[in-house]
Amino acid sequence: MTNTETKPQKRRLASLDALRGMDMFWILGGEKIFAALFILTGWTGWQVAHGQTLHSNWHGFTFYDLIFPLFIFLAGVAMGLSPKRIDHLPFQERRVYYAKALKRLFLLAGFGVLYNHGWGTGIPFNLEEIRYASVLGRIAIAWFVCVMLVWHTSLRTQIITAVSLLIGYWLLLCFVPVPGGQAGDLTMAGTWNAWVDQHLLPGITYQNRATDPEGLLSNVPAVVNALMGVFAGRLIAKANQFGEWKTVSYLFGAGLTSLALGWAWNMVFPVNKDLWTSSFVLVTVGWSLIFLASFYAVVDLLNTQKYFYPFIIIGANSIVIYLASSLVQWEYVAQSVFGGLVNAGSEAWQPLLAVFALLAVQLLVLHWLYKRKILISV
């Protein structure tokens, strides 16, 4: 007689789609709003806000640096809402799970290469001129390693793994000498990341830098962003047991704690997105938890989904619109559809109207997909 496992019901959170959509909004054109508002009003506060929509040059942190790790974190949250162990199953039954996981891994990595060479330039014929490292590739790797841990290990092992990865990465970058270099050199060309990318990463790096911001070695700590998402998802899944508003307070408190630890670690191991330092992981996890707590409280507990509809439709088809942001010339489409309205405005208003037009054409496509229940995921 074969034992069957009762699968937990997967909980669908509107706040998860809304937060994912808010995250993607800034990639689709939202980051241009503040610069346009500065042109319109001349208020220097908009310039300060615009600075937060640019990546840090090296060490440091801006709001825009959060977009990528937040997406990885949310992939973990979705996993944590219905975690399951499959290591007790016969291999024949597990093969189906492994096949799906590998398919997702390679599809996302392949889409990442496609994204890198969007805008009609074409993927180079010479394989050595292709950039294989990508945002989607990192999401794929972090998700794949994380799901294997969730499927095969206990919560205790996952926590130990997360802590070990962060400490181990710090020890490697700060205390182990780089071949031909020295220990603790955190310049762009002097780190272990640069050495690994120059010797092991195929193809080219981003803008031919010594260190690729999505390079091989920095995939290791990125796994922790996904694992921390799993822990948050598991907590939300037990909200009925703890109390929903108490769950919000737990998430918010954990976020503040992670932020404090990350900025404390920053004093000896700087927050750095390109290196994806351990302190960067804690800072981004902290903000991710705070945003998750806020969206879970406002969108799900206060039942305000209708007010977040634009974000929800972005989040529901996030991979599709992310790929389209590279492969489709949305500015041309927006000019074709709304160009007359934009040009009718005064010179000061035109930049802001152009941003609204750019966002509008993308939201119209996403609305059409959502209403027809066409939700494409990998």
What characteristics describe this protein?
378 residues; 0% strand; globular
Q: How would you portray this structure in words?
A:
By secondary structure, this protein is mostly helical. The protein has one domain. The chain contains 16 helices and no strands. Helix 4 packs across helix 12 and helix 5 runs antiparallel to helix 6. The longest helix is centred in the N-terminal third of the chain and has 26 residues.
Number of helices: 16
Runs in which pLDDT lies below 50 for 5 or more consecutive residues are 1-10
User: Mind describing the biggest β-sheet?
Assistant: none
Beta-strand residue fraction: under 5%
Determine the structural class based on helices, strands and strand pairing.
mainly alpha
Q: What assembly state would you assign to the polypeptide chains in this entry? A: single chain
Principal-axes geometry comes out as globular
Give the H and E element order: HHHHHHHHHHHHHHHH
Compute the CA-based radius of gyration: 22 Å
The count of strands amounts to 0
Mean pLDDT: 93
The helical percent reads 55-70%
Distance between the termini: 35 Å
Total domains: 1
Keywords: Membrane, Transmembrane, Transmembrane helix
Transmembrane segments: 21-41, 61-81, 101-118, 130-152, 159-178, 216-236, 248-269, 275-298, 307-328, 348-370
